């Protein structure tokens, strides 16, 4: 059994951002932090106050996380990036929107006294003495404090205040993981003062000390227990008066955020549900009844259909039945009244499942096919335009001879470039038949066959059915927004974006197999007509050449001095004990990670890897944490610094083999289409979806039976034709799973919070 939280974030766009550059514009990007740890950085959108990102992320978190902060930054080439504003969403706020939050959120100013992080280890107790009771607060250590100095660390000390008196600890230099082990005692008045306040500060020699956070302990609650010890989360100082912060004038972000708290049961609990779904798929479409998949399609809302499609595709991939599942969807979709020219154009469960299937199984193939052409478009940055209403006349010529290009010359130049890009792309597609994943080719063959049986007089429709998924739902979206498909690290600028849009439109027209239909809507595409017709014939030839292919994966993390050079060593994945970040001050460099492992002699060693950005860092951490998540003897603590000289740079311990000062974060991972399948997780999500659909499934079954004439006459409350065996078994499986969840032990207590 595993409890986990999964956070889905989509950063759509921003609007009305303030100008941070002297040009009157900004270069905005976003940083997403979970409890003040940077997880994701979006691409920078250059020279705009209304940026569009459209980037989606799914992060697996520990269930005890507290908040998500999204910082909007302005990138500067020569100085430190400016902070435009931020949005903070607490776990409590997300819990109030179980179906997720979607909308515009105003940015607020970043207040230094609220930018706190980390925890402090305290022991607070009441002591009996000759002079009466005394209050003792022992400050043991702290971890993960905010970095306030330019050296990437802080110089923390503690102020303990009670009943108007304050005592200070010593200053620990250059550490975000300080250890004090100092005790402070106060006389307990009668009646006792209510609160003990522990504040953490960063000491500065010249400037004002920086606030790092505080904890307030209730003495009244302490009198009942007599003793309290543990890690307390540092809180911002909300007691100090604040100036009215600007909100709204900093612009706003459009976000879609959803938190799912999941408890994944042992595999055996899901077997009845999984076996039932598999049996339904194996049985296929049978006349004279209502199929369970039809009921699921009819009762699933448009908002959740994408998620359900992904869960079903991954579940049947794990069961080796994805081809049969898709074939069943094709057969059920084709059994509905439909026209050849609108086939699979709706957002039905069949369309969404096939689209999700291509993303889950075909991303590597997509990169191999589109990558070279997309890179060429980005690198050349050529001006391409075919629409006369959008043509920009450019000056050409040299020295004494100066001439302005005519509109027709600009359009002819654009046509040649676009035709060159399209030809290169179609060449890559045509040659990719042997490298197309076999499971994709098998699905397309089934689709081709089913459509041919449904429309025997329209052989053309068979090819269009395949290209409607391959070109319109897979290739074209990736061409228009390569950043969202991980084909590029940055978004396209306006000129490159227009070229990509025209190229995607051309691929769509090739996929339609009737270029003349597109020309009727946009006459200015007529000069591209011969290339489109030739492309359609090449696409036909490609669809008929799909064959089998196999691939292989590794079992070790290998390393070399440079790319393309023979490897100089490797670390067995089974020997990895932790994959974590390294403090910036350790090497004077950002984005360094460490891999703690056991060598062949059984000695614990550490390898350090330099990453180029925060996204690459988190991708490496996530990949290693996923494949090593079940390794025995994973570490619960680690050293964020390095052992230099005679001590650790993070906590100043002198014992090299001593326990770590920071908590490991094995559970924090970024989710990706290429992740290993997790059948139990998909089964749990399907259970959550189906559990709320029991009554709609029953009602929809009766409606469909009545429409087919199987049940005549009025139906009273709770009455109707007897439910089919498959629905009875489904409801029994759901009830069994519900009982399993009710019998679970309570969740572990959350970390100690601020007490007032």
UniProtKB/TrEMBL annotation:
Q: Which GO terms describe its biological process?
A: intracellular signal transduction
Q: Name one GO molecular function term.
A: GTPase activator activity
Keyword Ligase annotated: no
The UniProt keyword set, sorted, is: GTPase activation, Metal-binding, Repeat, Zinc, Zinc-finger
> Mind telling me which PROSITE patterns this protein's record contains?
C2 (PS50004), RAS_GTPASE_ACTIV_1 (PS00509), RAS_GTPASE_ACTIV_2 (PS50018), ZF_BTK (PS51113)
Residue stretches making up the Ras-GAP domain = 304-512
Q: Which residues form the C2 domain?
A: 1-105, 116-232
Q: Please indicate if the UniProt record lists Metal-binding as a keyword.
A: yes
Any one Pfam family here would be: BTK
Q: Where is the signal peptide?
A: none
Q: What is this protein called?
A: RAS p21 protein activator 4B
Which species is this record about? Answer: Gallus gallus
